[in-house]
Amino acid sequence: MANVAVVGAQWGDEGKGKIVDWLSSRADVVVRFQGGHNAGHTLVINGVEYKLSLLPSGVVRQSKLSVIGNGVVFDPWAFIREVNAIKEKGVTVNPENLIVAENVPLILPVHSALDKAREEAKGAGKIGTTGRGIGPAYEDKVARRAIRLCDLTDDAVLVEKVDALLAHHNALFRALGAPEMTPADILEPLREIAPQVLPYAAVVWKQLDELRRAGKRILFEGAQGTMLDIDHGTYPYVTSSNTVAGNAAAGSGMGPRAVGYVLGICKAYTTRVGSGPFPTELTDDIGELIGQKGKEFGVVTGRKRRCGWFDAVMVRQAIKTGGIDGIALTKLDVLDGFDEVKVCVGYRLDGQEIDYYPANAGAQARVEPIYETFEGWKDTTRGARSWAELPAQAVKYVRHIEELIQAPVALLSTSPERDDTILMTDPFAD
Ligand code: GDP
Ligand code: IMO
Ligand code: MG
């Protein structure tokens, strides 16, 4: 039985939360495998809005198992805050329907402090991170000094690890001219939060193996997007994890064959939040209008998202580098009413045409988009629930995008609401 991985195919905020929520009616388990509470995933169910950062989007369907895999960086305080917030909305969350890998590395206050201090020191050259400590936490993981959820069960080990961690971090703080931290600054809050989070700790790889063997369907929920991937994105203006579906296996403790169908999510246009190159960015009235119609403000930081036309070259590259089988195209309704709509079909770099996005940061900043212009549509697509309801010109736009990106559109989303979704190919049936 096929599993499905949902990943962003642009710079994040493509509507992954909405699509994961919709697809999770067909799944038994929803697994986050990378990123942390830098993500902001929005679900709208019968007019009620849910904003999730660290919790898998399956959590609102209380009968599904939600899993935070080992590939995530886990802030225990943010976790408890989010669990409490969703409980206040009437959703039942407990260790029966939400588990966290015991080997997940923790995000500590030292990481968010470092994230913010570094961004400040960079000034105009900053990455524009979410300030959640994601990068510094992944650095500690790779450097083998991270404190992991399982370490909270053994105080002697914890004390030793905190000492080793601070020897490193205080040297960095001294260099940045920031105040140093004492072991107690880290240990006391950890000892306080431990009894609240440890009930959720589980041997995730083992449970997932058992569920898989019992024929349960697993939905992997990516955060961020391919252009923010640490290897395949617009480095260094990226996040600190692999966002591609290849990481769904390693980040949850399953083999690559478990991943199944890879569904890439992309908007019918493009947005980006934070710094970095963006070839199709519109800094004019049209960009403003797209931002207003699409309500393009960040879920996590409230920052205004930069907006631009659909970039077929970039999405095609995301499809190739990430092994995407099909696309869910979202926010088509935001393009309703435009006289014309443009799509980037190639780049010009230093006078030459190229059909891919180069890796070099200077070249990424210099490429100029080559556009194809489409006639817009006056009738609305908003809320359409069948292909037949779409204006002919909108259908033409979608069909042409499929050709350009060399992948089929499996799902189409026409509003934030859960059920305003058109299914063309069932990813679970593939
Ligand atoms: P994610 O990070 O990929 O889950 O996406 P976000 O939740 O950060 O941003 C997507 C925004 O678009 C959210 O406010 C969604 O409610 C909204 N959204 C999702 N799909 C559609 C759609 O088809 N049309 C419109 N107008 N809004 C949508
Ligand atoms: P979702 O899952 C959009 C961006 C930040 C910054 C860069 C690095 O909602 O799509 P980080 O805090 O990760 O070190 O920041 O990545 N970024 C996102 N942009 N959507 C996200 O998540 C993002 N998560 C991080 O704005 O440019
Ligand atoms: Mg988001």
TrEMBL record:
Q: Where does substrate bind?
A: 299-305
What are its cofactors? Mg(2+)
List ligand-binding residues for IMP.
Answer: 13-16, 38-41, 130, 144, 224, 239, 303
Q: Which domain of life is it from?
A: Bacteria
Which residues take part in binding Mg(2+)?
Answer: 13, 40
Q: Which family does it belong to?
A: Belongs to the adenylosuccinate synthetase family.
Task performed by this protein: Plays an important role in the de novo pathway of purine nucleotide biosynthesis. Catalyzes the first committed step in the biosynthesis of AMP from IMP.
This chain belongs to the protein called Adenylosuccinate synthetase
Point out the gene that encodes the protein.
Answer: purA
